[in-house]
Write a structure and sequence with these properties.
It is a single chain. The chain is of the alpha+beta class. It folds into three domains: about 5-105, no CATH class; about 110-190, no CATH class; about 200-315 and about 355-405, no CATH class. Helix content is about 20%, strand content about 25%. The chain is built from eleven helices and 21 strands. Strand 4 and strand 5 form a beta hairpin. Helix 7 packs across helix 11.
Length: about 400
Amino acid sequence: MLKKGTFIIIEKDGQFMAAVRRADGGVIELPEVAITPELQRLNGQACEYLFKGDKIVKVDGRNIFQAHKPETSKTPQTLNPAQTDWKRALRESAEEDEPEIIEKISKPNLQDSFESSKSRVPNDTQRVKISKEKVDNFSLKLNQFARWDWQKDGNKDGNKLYFFNPKKIEEGPKGQKETKLDAFKIKANFGDLFKKNEDQLAHRQKIAAEFLFSEAGQLVTQKFRPDWRFITGLGGHSVYETGLTLHHVYGIPYIPASSVKGVLRSWVICQKFGNDEKQALGNEVFCRIFGCPNESALGTAHRGSVTFFDALPTTPPKIEPDIMNSHYPKWYGGTGAPVDTDSPNPVFFLTVVDTTFEFLLGSKNWNLQTERFWEKTLSEWLTAALTSHGIGAKTAVGYGYFTEHKAS
């Protein structure tokens, strides 16, 4: 009889090794299993195992002893030196409880989730034949045409809003299985927004900013790319359990100007004022940059002299599902103990990957290219904030850190 446990990847003597964590907390090492990127993505998932006779460790319905046979010609896998990077270490520390991403997320052959007949829109709209290729506003597709499809909740059948389902769900009498829910994921299409440089929203915003701040040094621009994954608006209003900030007109992911200002302001307070906001408000330069209330160094409410713009993508945004996996739903629900025999309760959310964003700061009071505030220009402060502090949700586990992207 198969026993239940959790499949994990551990590090031992500088090498990755597959293992099974038993329900009692013990760990069974599997040195004979070859570690592959595909196998690493299964880290933290529930499994069934049996070690009498033929060895069996089933993860997602597959026996990893058959799917990942060792290759004797290869040398043992050692840890990549780049994995010592502290940002990556944050992500790896979370993988045991929150797998980085389930295997099927990256598969390109998943069909698109869009199907107008399954959305909760007015009948006359639903009767219009809308092809998937013509839907070029991701926000409308994700939220207004959300897929309302079958789900199974315990012993009851019901419906749920989906943007991603990793595998086909079938039920029915033996030999007569019926497909209840196909495998699919939402696919982004942004039309002509990124086909020509002059048509890009970011380019048009930059032209307007240059008109507003036309004198030399009044406007600074920088481009950044996420080191890994980025998400903003995770807890925002959404028809799903999770959200994503999308432009209200164009439907593209972006970083609101308020978020850019907030992360820069927070980083300056942390680094120069000991994380004490009252002390920062007692500094005149700080108040003139970011603005302040009556109770401040200026003695009156003051609007900040630096204009922050929305950070818009300059390349077609790549949007991928990711997963938060609660391994102890009974414990969190107050109905049981935190044991590894619980079935995980995955919550899917959308992230932005491999996308360049343009950040713009403007001021009519200073030459932002040369003026230094606390030994640094604002551009240098912004670079430090985005690379060391991060922006958006889940920065504690490695999301939202950026690297400056300079044209070659």
